[in-house]
Amino acid sequence: MKEPRRNVPATSDSDTSASKTRDSETGGSESPSLPRPSQPGFSADEAKELLGMCVVANYLGPVVFPPFPVGLTPTADPEDPLPHDDGRTYPYPADRIWPKGWGPGVPTIDQARPWATSIVTSRLPNGAPVNSAIVAYNASRNCYAIAFAGTLNPGAAMQDEAALLVPAEAVYLPYLTSNESYVTKLPVPAELPSGGITFDPPPQPPPQNPLIHLGYRSAVESLAVDPLIPLNLRSILAHIVENEIDLYVTGHSLGAAVAQLFSAWIRAGGVPLKKINVKCYSFATPKCCNTPMAANYALALGNNGFSYRVENSLDTAPQLPPTKEEISDLINPAIAGDLSSKAEPTGLYAASPLAPLVNAILHPQKSEPASLPLPIAIFATVVGNVINAASQNTHAGPAVSMEYVGMGVPHVLAAHYPVVYDGRFYPPDLFPARDPADPVIIPDDTTRQWWQHWPYNYAKYLAAA
């Protein structure tokens, strides 16, 4: 194991990672048996630690929306940045949210504000804060962690809504100009099919380029490379003395998508001259890319056990943004037209009970919708028009793609109903140190609607799993 060296840009390298005496079953551990970012595979202990960091990143981020308190500032405790982390103040099924053994990742000489340089916040040109991340360090394991905050204000919500797929490499748009890349260059050996070169090769479809969500890319770069932030994430990582760094990356909701793209950026060489062993745990992750980008991410991280997408089985966020796959999104669009020609219900196969539906799909203009139930007739007409477009023009499709997919290896948690919470007060088990006779009122209908999305349910389901 490498010797701990913490010479990140700071004015002090004092050890801030001593263990806290208060214990917690979900607050993490300093046990050497815990895996490291350089070790592959899913670990429930890792997931619990990093989920706690996500929650703290949310509370200490540029908060506007409830149920997060307004104006929350980090404590003077280098072992726990969250004020009043006592099991009474925040809804979380544990006595302690911040994991034990983790301290500020960027030391400072200001002993009254040990977290001042370890919480990175991006801002609009007018100064309004938008995104936030916490950089932490574990001395006993000599590894770092970066936790990204979620959707906490209208600026972040605008990033969620900016659901436009843009190139995952250099992009030059009115609303984003960047030379950063999220695509890992992987060796692809040239190998002809057995049988050699044909004299009349069939035409190849156009290549499908890796694309990523504009809003989430903007969020990554606002924290990673923005020159207006003196200690942005690239500079923090670049100034660590060691050439090899073990790094966890995590986030919840918008922060989860940002964590995945940030991990892809790191893996693609976002911090030159550093070997960074990155391992990502994302929670409640929206879809942030198209299929080619997801494939590149899988080859770079997911296939090897270094990226996990933790999902609650009743959470809607991983279904967003809604996807609409067009013919031009297919790797080989000709397949759709070829399949339609082979599916004609002719001869003996005309007796298939599926024949009326297949006919309606293949020939929507000639079919008799009255012969089918209305929902099926509408479905058949829509699918039929898509297939017909494929058979007539295999390269057809809109200039703007909406083919969103998820990245990372899914790890699904079994959720409990209700999907929309119907209570007036939070369940007492989310405030383990609070008197059950003194319940906490749920602040608004948004909290009820997003019930299955909130981190405290993820923590509860993760503990049960």
Quick structural summary:
This protein has 465 residues and is of the alpha/beta class. The protein has helices at 44-60, 154-161, 214-224, 233-238, 254-267, 291-300, 334-342, 355-362, 374-392, 445-449, 455-464, and strands spanning 102-104, 119-123, 129-138, 143-148, 165-167, 171-173, 176-178, 211-213, 244-252, 275-283, 307-312, 409-413.
Descriptive overview:
The chain has 465 residues and is an alpha/beta fold. The chain folds into two domains: 44-172 and 210-326 and 402-464, Alpha/Beta hydrolase fold, catalytic domain (Rossmann fold), CATH 3.40.50; 334-392, no CATH class. Helices cover 25% and strands 14% of the residues. The chain contains eleven helices and twelve strands. The protein has helices spanning 44-60, 154-161, 214-224, 233-238, 254-267, 291-300, 334-342, 355-362, 374-392, 445-449, 455-464; strands spanning 102-104, 119-123, 129-138, 143-148, 165-167, 171-173, 176-178, 211-213, 244-252, 275-283, 307-312, 409-413. The strands form three sheets. Strands 1, 2, 3, 4, 9, 10, 11 and 12 form an eight-stranded mixed β-sheet that branches. A two-stranded antiparallel sheet has the order 5-8. The protein has a two-stranded antiparallel sheet with strand order 6-7. β3 (129-138) and β4 form a beta hairpin. It is globular and about 80 Å long. It starts with 43 loop residues before the first helix and ends with a helix.
